[in-house]
Write a structure and sequence with these properties.
This protein is α+β, with helices and mostly antiparallel strands. The chain has one domain (about 5-70). The protein is built from 1 helix and 3 strands; from the N terminus they run H-E-E-E. The protein has one helix at about 5-45; strands spanning about 50-55, 60, 70. The model has no long low-confidence stretch (mean pLDDT about 70).
Length: about 70
């Protein structure tokens, strides 16, 4: 195995791991942003306390400030 082949393999591994980290961070940030924005929007604009959040995982229902329980 030449040095060039080793470098290629490592660049592939690093490239993939960077993409996984970027996507994971973005997904988590997007989830929390939806929770915060939906909660504030429901409180200030609509005056409602029941918040529904639609995410990739499914639908969550709860009140702002409470821990979210997964609705089956």
């Amino acid at each position: 195995m030449t040095l060039l082949q080793k470098v290629n393999i490592w660049s592939d591994i690093i490239g993939f791991s960077v993409w996984f980290i970027v996507i994971g961070v973005f997904w988590i940030f997007d989830f929390f942003l939806r929770v915060v924005v939906t909660g504030q929007f429901a409180n200030t604009v609509l005056g409602k306390h029941d918040v529904k959040i639609k995410t990739v995982l499914g639908e969550y229902k709860g009140k702002p400030g409470e821990k979210l329980a997964h609705k089956h």
